[in-house]
Design goal:
Blueprint (H helix, E strand, L loop, with lengths): L28 H14 L8 E4 L14 E4 L5 H11 L5 E6 H7 L1 H10 L4 E6 L2 E2 L5 E2 L23 H7 L4 E6 L3 H13 L4 E6 L11 H7 E3 L10 H9 L5 E8 L6 H4 L20 H7 L1
Parallel strand pairs: 1-2, 1-3, 3-4, 4-8, 7-8, 9-10
Antiparallel strand pairs: 5-6, 7-10
Helix pairs in contact: 1-6, 3-4, 5-8
C-alpha cells in the first residue's frame, strides 16, 4: 500500500475514503469514526502503519469508510484474528472493534480470553444496547424490561453487567467514553493504543433508530469525566465501583490502568531474546521433493 503523506506526518485527510457513510443520522458511529482517525493522526500513525479489525454490525460497515489496512471478520470473532495479527507482528498497532451484541453474546468467550491472555491490542466496544444492524433486537446489555423489536415485553434473560464482568477478569486497562464527545474519544483511544497490553474501551453511543432508552441527550446529561473529580486510575476497587454504578451518573475517562503486567507476547518464552518478528522470519521453502513423497 503506497500512501503519500504530508511532510509533517499523517493528517486526517490521509484516512479519507470516497466510500459514502450509510449510518443513520445521529448514529454514534460518526463520533467514534472521527475519534479513531483523530487519535491515529495525533499519534502520527499512518494508514499503512496500523491494522483496524472490524466485527459484524453497524460499526463494521465503517471498515471501508477509511483508508488503511482493515479486516472485516465474522460475527463475534474479531478478537482472535486481531490477537493473531499482533502476535505475528508485534510492531504493528492493532485496534479491534465490536458491538455489544457480538462481543457479549456470540463472542463473549473470545472476549474473556483476550482479557485473560492480556493480548497487546486495543478493543473498542461500540455500546448502543442493541443489535442495530438487524433492526433492534435485544442484546445482553439491553436493560431489563425494555421493549425491543423481537421482545415487545422485554427480554426474559437477565441483563449482563458488562463492566462488572470485565473487572472480574482482572484487566489492566479499562476506559469509557461518550461518542458525542469526540475530544474525549480521541484522548482515551490515544492512551489505549499506548497501553502495554489489552486495552478495553467501552464507548457509549446512541442508536437513534432502535434504541429509545439511551438517547444522545440522555447520555450527554449523565456522563461525567472522572479526571475532573480527581479519580486515581490505579485504584482498582474504586475504578470498579465507578464503572458499575450508572444509576444516576455515568463515569467516563481512564477508569483503571496498570503498566506493571507483562503482556502475552512478553510472556512467550520462545520469543524472548528475539529481535525479529514472526512475519520477518517467514521464508520461502521449496516443497517439491516433499510433495513427490506424498504422490
Amino acid at each position: 500500500m503506497a500512501i503519500k503523506l504530508d511532510a509533517t506526518g499523517p493528517m486526517m485527510k490521509d484516512y479519507h475514503s470516497d466510500n459514502r457513510c450509510t449510518w443513520c443520522d445521529g448514529c454514534g458511529n460518526y463520533g467514534i469514526w472521527t475519534g479513531v482517525k483523530s487519535a491515529l493522526t495525533e499519534l502520527k500513525i499512518a494508514p499503512d502503519q496500523c491494522l483496524l479489525c472490524f466485527d459484524v454490525g453497524c460499526h463494521g460497515n465503517g471498515s471501508d469508510k477509511l483508508k488503511g489496512y482493515r479486516f472485516h471478520g465474522l460475527h463475534g470473532r474479531v478478537l482472535p484474528f486481531a490477537a493473531g495479527a499482533k502476535i505475528a507482528n508485534p510492531k504493528l498497532p492493532v485496534i479491534a472493534f465490536g458491538g455489544d451484541g457480538a462481543s457479549f453474546s456470540e463472542g463473549i468467550g473470545h472476549l474473556v480470553h483476550a482479557v485473560r491472555s492480556h493480548y497487546p491490542i486495543t478493543f473498542v466496544l461500540h455500546n448502543n444496547g442493541n443489535y442495530g444492524l438487524t433492526t433492534g433486537q435485544s442484546s445482553s446489555l439491553t436493560p431489563q424490561g425494555q421493549p425491543m423489536n423481537t421482545a415487545p415485553n422485554g427480554m426474559p434473560e437477565m441483563t449482563l453487567n458488562s463492566m462488572d464482568f470485565i473487572f472480574s477478569l482482572e484487566p489492566t486497562f479499562v476506559a469509557r467514553a461518550f461518542s458525542g464527545d469526540i475530544k474525549q474519544v480521541t484522548a482515551v483511544l490515544k492512551e489505549a493504543i499506548r497501553h502495554r497490553g489489552f486495552a478495553f474501551v467501552d464507548i457509549l453511543q446512541a442508536c437513534p433508530t432502535y434504541n429509545k432508552f439511551a438517547t444522545h441527550t440522555m447520555l450527554m446529561e449523565k456522563y461525567y469525566k472522572v479526571e475532573d473529580e480527581g479519580h486515581d486510575p490505579t485504584d482498582f476497587k474504586k475504578a470498579r465501583a465507578l464503572a458499575i454504578d450508572t444509576s444516576k451518573r455515568i463515569a467516563t475517562g481512564i477508569l483503571y490502568r496498570t503498566e506493571n503486567v507483562p503482556n502475552f507476547y512478553e510472556r512467550l518464552v520462545p520469543r524472548q531474546g528475539k529481535t525479529t518478528t514472526a512475519v520477518e522470519e517467514v521464508e520461502k521453502f521449496d516443497v517439491t521433493e516433499l510433495m513427490k513423497e506424498l504422490l
